[in-house]
Design brief:
The structure is a homodimer.
Chain A lengths: L9 E5 L3 H12 L3 E5 L13 E3 L6 H10 L2 E4 L6 H8 L8 H8 L1 H10 L7 E4 L2 H11 L3 E5 L9 E4 L5 H7 L5 E5 L5 E9 L5 E3 L3 E6 L2 E7 L5 H17 L4 E10 L2 E8 L17 H9 L11 E9 L6 H6 L3 E4 L10 E11 L1
Parallel strand pairs in A: 1-2, 1-4, 2-3
Antiparallel strand pairs in A: 5-8, 6-7, 6-8, 9-10, 9-11, 9-13, 11-12, 12-15, 13-14, 15-17, 16-17
Chain lengths: ~350, ~350
């Protein structure tokens, strides 16, 4: 078990985007220093961090110096090269652990892990070529979604098969990457549970949020989610089972489809999650501080929800709405990104819609 | 009137302590960059700021470069040398304005200003030597408090006169500095109003907080304060009158004594204020973001209080209580200071005691 980190210690964060930025602020609030490892200059996290090591994930010397300069390592994204993890882990502990990363980095491994826990997932089959795709279609049927096993996010690396005739085009979209065919899940809506676990095994889950995606990117998360008391309880128990099984330390986002037959696990993200941003204005301790507390070996904080909130992502030109939003009484959270490219997450807004 | 600042603009902050630190975080949340002007290295604000100009207030070149590198200037403390303000203001706007600074920098000017608005203050008299002190005692009586007119904070630069016999010792304590004798105010408790005003003249006041000092240093602030509805309303109206009279832009802390004869203004602080730290866990928009919104010419945010909170300062060795406090469910806010010297503010804790 990790000894608990003392105030003044330095937390290393792999990745300098908005999640790293909000993790840095939370770390500072608890008296920690932060060092961001990020190849890009002027990254969002560096604006609010003590140190920024600007280097690539293939720069073993830089990774080693980074690891030596910090007390514990965490990350804001899961697609970290294995070689980089090897170099880092030889020097300092990384939370969440390698198994959680390996599980979530590969959609096939992830689904097999979830099934092994007795949890429901979409039907799935491994796809590496035309023959295996044909076999997968025969097993699962259409409609179905072909996804790369690795490196997918925000709907990228996915192709939909409305009928078996779409097989060749879908496979071409994978560009030779190992893939997984997932059966279509008839769900009414998607919810996610943001769950935290510390090294002592204590678990704290935030109330499930209800997610709406537009164009494959999260658009809004609303709490409370439309769930029966039983479903809400199931959702939290599913998340806890996953965290315990992975001996997980940190915050995880668990996405669930709500169906007539119960909750189906869509995917897990071994990090703070866009669908947990509402906690910044709905709870005393938000998901970012909860993650820092967990990886620092501190007691988890009070994540009781005190407000109904709708979180709305500001994507690309949505940022132009800021003057109006500033008038509205909503809470604004911007990421300090210079250019509002299409599809780029520029910030988010939390609208408190009432007390619990 | 200031044009409203666009996201991506840089806010210059004079002073790198905990108030500058929390202002920087709030500025980042709204997409602003920050530059801290602070002679000391490794200062709390620099940990979460984009830039730190490490230079003294007598370094006119550095002040000029600082002013040129930012879009607007604000400060976390009021005792800024006039010469520095002259150098800065020649280049970029400073909020709050010079008049607010000049008024609050000098206890005599401050009291005369408040009386000029028809507000109640302690009885007071100007003291520069033995003769004027004797005259002041004759006018005001004892018990009374002799205070330096300038540069006092956290109870420093003050001497209590229980009887006229204490006059010589008290005057010696002033070390030749111009002073003011203040009559004793028989108050039941002290409250403060954290008030904000933007360039359009919009005003937003947080609910008054009740302050308890120990050894001249703020120990706790509790909301709601013990006030009748009439007193709470008076407190807010007094604060608004002061802000309007100064054409003030930013957040101000207004300390009030509660007496049987009404509210008596103790002092004003033209900046975010220790007694407003509870807003971080009691309101959607805290005092730090409210200040940034005001000086940026943005609409003020929603400062409605949604929780009852007690803020407790962690002073000196209080920091050793952090492991226990982390267990308690309270919200921790640490300042990243390395050494826990006696009397040094190391952090604070907000304990949410219930919904409003």
């Amino acid at each position: 078990m990790t000894e608990s980190l003392k105030t003044g210690a330095t937390i290393g964060i792999l990745g300098g985007g908005q999640l790293g930025r909000m993790l840095s602020v939370a770390a500072a609030r608890l008296g920690f220093k932060t060092c961001i490892f990020e190849p890009a200059g002027d990254c969002p996290a560096s604006h609010v961090a003590n140190f920024h090591m600007k280097a690539g994930y293939d720069d073993t010397d830089a990774l080693k110096r980074f690891a030596e300069s910090v007390d514990v390592i965490t990350f804001e994204f899961e697609n970290i090269p294995t070689s980089a993890l090897d170099a880092l882990e030889a020097v300092k502990p990384i939370h969440p652990n390698r198994r959680a990363l390996a599980t979530s980095q590969d959609r096939l491994t992830e689904k097999e892990f979830l099934r092994g826990l007795g949890l429901q997932t979409a039907h799935f089959a491994d796809v590496s070529d035309t023959a295996s795709l044909d076999a997968a279609i025969a097993k699962i049927g259409t409609p179905a979604i072909l996804k790369t096993r690795r490196m997918g996010y925000d709907g990228k690396g996915q192709a939909r098969l409305s009928s078996p005739q779409d097989a060749a085009d879908a496979l071409a979209d994978m560009a030779g990457a190992p893939a997984i065919l997932e059966g279509f899940v008839s769900f009414t809506h998607e919810v996610s549970v943001i769950a935290a676990r510390n090294p002592e095994g204590a678990i704290a889950c935030y109330d499930p949020g209800e997610n709406v995606h537009v164009g494959g990117i999260l658009s809004t998360t609303t709490v409370p989610a439309k769930l029966t008391a039983g479903q809400a309880s199931d959702a939290v128990l599913i998340a806890a089972r996953i965290l315990n099984a992975l001996d997980y330390v940190g915050v995880m986002g668990v996405e669930l489809f709500v169906t007539a037959e119960g909750l189906i696990v869509n995917e897990i993200a071994p990090r703070v999650h866009n669908s947990g941003h509402w906690t910044q204005n709905g709870c005393t301790i938000d998901q970012f501080e909860q993650h820092i507390r967990a990886i620092a070996g501190w007691p988890l904080g009070d994540g009781t929800r005190f407000a109904n909130v709708t979180m709305e992502n500001l994507i690309g030109d949505d940022i132009a709405q800021i003057p109006d939003i500033a008038q509205s009484g909503a809470a604004i959270h911007l990421y300090g990104k210079a250019d509002a490219k299409p599809g780029r997450k520029m910030g988010h807004v939390n609208r408190v819609t009432g007390p619990v």
